[in-house]
Known about the structure:
It contains 36 helices and 23 strands.
Amino acid sequence: MSFLVRFLMLFMPLLRWPLRAWINTHASPSDLDEIALATDKPVCYVLPVGSVMDWLALEVTCAEHGLPRPYLAGNAMPRLNRAVVLALPVGRSRARSELHRIVSRGLHDKSFDVQMVPVSVFWGRNPVKETSLFRILFADSERTGRLRKLLIVLANGRNTLVHFGQPLDYRAFLDEQAAPATLVRKLVRVLRVHFRRQRAATLGPPLSRRSQLINSLLADPDVQHSLEETARRENTTLSVARSRARDYANEIAADYSNIAIGFMLRVLTWLWNRIYDGVDVRHLQRLRATTHDRREVIYLPSHRSHMDYLLVSYILYQEGLALPQIAAGVNLNFWPVGALLRRCGAFYLRRSFKGDRLYTAVFRAYVDVLIQRGQPMKFYPEGGRSRTGRLLAPQTGMLSMAVTSALGGNGAPTAIVPVYIGYDRVMEVNKYFDELRGTRPKKGESMGDLVRGSTKVLKHKYGRAFVSFGQPIDLQEYADAHLPDWRAQMADLDVDTRPKWLQEFVGKLSNRVMEGINATATLNATGLASLILLGSPQKAVAEDEMVHTLELLAELARVSPYSPDASAPSETDGRAMLAEAEPTMRLIRVPHAWGDVLTVESRQGVLLTYGRNNVMHLFALPSLIANFFAHFEQRNRKTLLADAVELYPLLASELFLRWPADQAQAALEQAIDGMLASGLLVAGERGRLRRPEAGTREFAALVSLSRIMREALERYAMTVMLLSHHLDTGRIIERGRFERQCQLMAERMAILSGRNSPEFFDLRLFRNYLQTLVRIGLLHPQGNRMHIDESLRNVAEHALRLLGSDLRQSIAHLTSLPHLEDAQPSAAAVQRE
């Protein structure tokens, strides 16, 4: 063996160029501008170990991306025209003297500066399994012999990741009071911590064989207790119960396969290029810092398409971050898709755990294993895909399990990352429309549906996809702020119960996650144009008006952003934005001598509501303010703010707006200032605000802006007017019956107004309104009945001021209909529920 190694090292110079040709590298981050290398400072690359192969991979990557070429340091110092590479020292190695020389130079020459860039090289990136023979022979590891390293390169060289860390602040690191040897030791410690964390962030924890994992689940104390309870309750043997638990574990557990991941990577790269015009990814640098600093990361994305399962994992893999295990509905576990997704990290869960304590115990044990090992995971807080484009009310079961696992036991440092996913056009939107109309029942997925759907999907382009990683929530810090005694409470928690304090805590956290998703939304040209077009009475807009309104609303989004993480269009030219949105929206141009008119077919107009609903919350506050000027030329700023603050809780609960009620006034003030800066409002005398002159493009934009929240305000006005009507007939209402009355009234209004929008009479929205009215004290629950507070009359009057006389008359007429209580929702509405 030693003879072979010496033979290979003798001919290494001859092997250099063939090896360089064989190595295929991928750089992380994909946008190397993130590392912000200065052009006026020399560069010193630092590798975790001395390896000629790692140096070759670095050399290939630098050549591909135009970075300074790395030369072996030797006795040379880094210069502007000559970058060097060195490795962390081991013992009294040559690398230690090289590092000592660079540190000493900085201590003696105050003008000397260098950018020290830590570089990690990963060969293969497979989430290897413990005790695997493949790991022993070919899987990458931190320290290997030369022969094994050559075998690793030959086996995995086509899939090599080269990760560049942020440069160390060399001058700030130096301490004139310390000796060079002390500084070298300190620098080595800092770099070793960085490399260790980077390796964990890229590869994740080592995985056990699936059989070992399943055996560990069955040995879990809670599962053992559940096995005994099941055997006693069902009067069966322990072996029968254990066999069922093993079947559950096999149904749930993922089974990583490097081959499957490599296959899916190639398929997805082809697929994204085939159906999308690109994937816009935001806030990766912050996410990278989070994965580097936290042991456990839980991704909680919005759920709008089956493509969500693949898109986030694809991005994380491409960006050199560890693949998460993904909670997928058991409806996707059909041949052959289920097995393929399982090998790419999917684990399956049933829609409901009720009535099966053994399944619940096995699933909870699986979640415990993932979190305690620091395995990244991903699940959808909404539970299922949104059929309307709005965020659904969160389902808290899975989050509750994750919280109890992370806060209990060892209390692993955990970051929850909200993720916004949006599309110019969702490929399932036609199916969603039919389901909402009640013309197509929901049904489970199958291979036949997949094949038929794929043939249709591949024939079309769907614009761009948008993924934005929100502000991470440090779970332990959040618990300290909202549940100060959580350590004692978690220690005494019975896993088979969900006490009220835990439900309330998880409920607040889930709402915080939904607000975080919306706070990082991306405003795209298609969504913005849909907002404008769908707000017009007949879904028709003159081209010039569309162009001007696009420019003004995009400027408003930049001047007064919804949140620091929300992304406004970078394009400032309205015609360019229209050109981008037109093919995806499938606009119809009606030629006219005075300029083209843009419109859409009736069904397409309904389909566009999905994209509109993705981003309408970004304009919720400006739209609310604009509605106060729909029927009045001027308003007093102070009075306007008081009325808007009163309406804010209803919009906040429907759209998961990010400001708590006590911050609503400040947020509305900021929105007004943004509208003033954009010319959508004009400041008058004595604290008055007025709308722009009629006929100006600013006036047209203000009208368009007001229509964004018009439907929500109409629904709200219906609800409070119906409640006000019940004040005259008795102050007690039965909750379920009243919800049906609201739904019927909205359905009737939709028919009378010609509004072809099934979501307008969505029963869940009215349920949400009632919950909010309870929270702000206008309704008082009494079992399944509710008592109406007298102060609701004033709220109803304020709500009606925002509506035109025709709508006020329609609502007043509908609330006075006889036998209102005996009415039943339409068949289509019942089908949707």
